[in-house]
Specification:
It comes from Streptomyces bluensis. It contains twelve helices and eleven strands. By secondary structure, the protein is an alpha/beta fold. The strands form two sheets. An eight-stranded mixed barrel has the order 3-4-6-7-8-9-10-11, surrounded by six helices. Strands 1-2 form a two-stranded antiparallel sheet. A hairpin with a 5-residue loop joins strand 1 and strand 2. It is globular and about 45 Å long. Bound molecules: ligand C2E and magnesium ion (3 copies). The site of ligand C2E has 23 residues, from strand 4, helix 2 and strand 8.
Length: about 290
């Protein structure tokens, strides 16, 4: 089991984190069935530039369990990772996302979609080739797919991970480094990973407007990324002030509830159509001046 130290230094048993509890095993079986029954859905959250242009969408899994209701992705992804179900979940997500991308393209909506992949996937032999084959099967160009990875891909077998990512890059798939700043020795990783985008973790963005240290961390991250030729996206942007700070710091795009939460496919289509070529408009920009 995994133990966690509380503040007194005493180890506390956490049943939630035990990978073999009947609860987790039950959930794992339910997830397997839900995937087979296509009960797991993808929602899409926009990434927008400061000019309002939609830079892309991120696919996020949503699972409504028949008895438990919504199960948070963090929870069932951890279960899928530790049980060997992860490759199956990723295939399902890639398949569903590419079907949707192809459908949108047929409707004249050429928006790239980002799919989150886990370290497990990157270590699955043949992963890069399988992704390329899937793109070809859906008639979707590689540039319309982005994969979001985290620094954790380099924890286990850095060489193999680097080879897989190089293979994906060779096929023209763009990669984004998610949750940046939460991993370890990030600078070394940045050099080794063939990513074109860096996403600043929400934990640094959330208090940006009120915490000067967080603001400095974000400023340095933006400068570092730009000097390496990477685009920078801030996640978890919830208010106007944070949006403005990020724009002033030179960030390239934002994602967050200020713009839109993740939406079901039909709602995403309507959202994309409503913005048209005008792009997303900040609510505050539409308000009359008050001074
Ligand atoms: P992530 O990739 O870093 O995704 C961002 C998370 O922040 C999402 O949570 C999103 O709904 C949430 N979020 C977006 N904007 C805001 C905001 O303004 N405020 C706040 N408080 N939260 C915001 P979600 O959907 O619960 O996903 C959690 C994590 O689960 C994701 O983090 C990702 O690591 C993982 N995940 C989600 N879908 C997939 C998937 O298809 N495959 C894999 N391997 N992992 C996935
Ligand atoms: Mg992500
Ligand atoms: Mg993230
Ligand atoms: Mg995150």
């Amino acid at each position: 089991y995994q133990a966690k130290r509380d503040r007194t230094g005493v180890e506390v048993y956490e049943s939630k984190r035990d990978s073999n509890t009947p609860d987790r095993l039950g959930l794992l079986g339910d997830l397997r069935r839900a995937l087979d029954a296509h009960e797991v859905e993808l929602h899409y959250q926009p990434k927008v530039g400061f000019d309002g242009q939609v830079a892309g969408l991120e696919a996020l899994v949503r699972w409504v369990h028949p008895e438990r209701g919504k199960v948070p992705p963090d929870e069932f992804i951890a279960i899928a990772e530790s049980s060997g179900l992860m490759p199956h979940l990723t295939e399902y997500v890639l398949e569903t996302a590419l079907e949707q991308v192809a459908r949108w393209r047929a409707q004249g909506l050429f928006v790239p979609v980002a799919v989150n992949v886990s370290p497990r996937d990157v270590h699955t032999p043949g992963f890069a080739g399988a992704v390329a084959a899937r793109l070809a099967r859906h008639g979707v160009p590689a540039g319309a797919l982005q994969l979001e990875i985290t620094e954790h891909v380099l924890l286990e077998d850095p060489q193999r991970a680097a080879d897989t990512l190089a293979g994906l890059a060779g096929h023209g798939v763009k990669m984004s480094l998610d949750d940046f700043g939460t991993g370890y020795s990030s600078l070394v990783h940045l050099r080794r990973l063939p990513v074109s985008e860096l996403k600043i973790d929400r934990s640094f963005v959330a208090r940006l407007a009120v915490d000067t240290e967080d603001a400095e961390i974000v400023r340095c991250t933006v400068d570092l990324a730009h000097s390496l030729g990477l685009l920078v996206v801030a996640e978890g942007v919830e208010d106007d002030e944070t949006w403005e700070r990020l724009r002033d710091l030179g960030c390239d795009a934002v994602q967050g509830w200020l713009v839109a939460a993740a939406m079901p496919p039909e709602e995403t289509t309507a959202w994309l159509r409503a913005r048209g070529s005008r792009g997303w408009q900040r609510p505050a920009a539409a308000l009359p001046a008050t001074t």
